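User: Fold this; tokens only.

Assistant: Input:
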Amino acid sequence: MKLYYSPGACSMASHIVLHEIGKPFEIEKVSTKTKEMESGRDYWAINPKGAVPALEIDGGDVLTEGPAILQYIADTNAATDLAPPTGTLARARVQEMLSFVGSELHKAFSPLFHADKTDAEKAAAREVVQKKFAWLESRLGDGRPYLTGANFTVADAYAFVVANWSNVTGVSLEALPKLKDYVARVAARPSVQAAMKAEGLI
């Protein structure tokens, strides 16, 4: 398998899960601005949507959209800790969290990465992000180590990457001690350290 990624972007969640699986894979960096790959090739030819991640599967098929890639990696490697079996409530809970992170939290951060947004627009975006973070704080309120319970799942990989954007967008976690501890706990996982190192982030 080959993962197309941009350092620190949501594609890092797939990168983390590939390290969790522990099987060989390749990576290639993509510029999200120019859509040029590290090899000089045109990324539009890989993913006509232009976004990362994309996963090139052995045989030539290309899968896009982070939540789909995360579940595919887990399912094709029988990694039921990362993604519980289809049809179970546990799986639905993981998908619930993937949906929240993708459609609510990830999107809430978007204005903070656009240079054309005003300071007022960015301040409003930070308030929205804080409200989403407050919900995650409440999920962790019962002492669970991960978002859906005792096991680290693909949803945690995605949530960690997005929550970690707080470091570069001026969103504080100081009033959210459980979420802050959660981010630190996930960051310490060997798979996360390996992905961040490979992407030049640490």
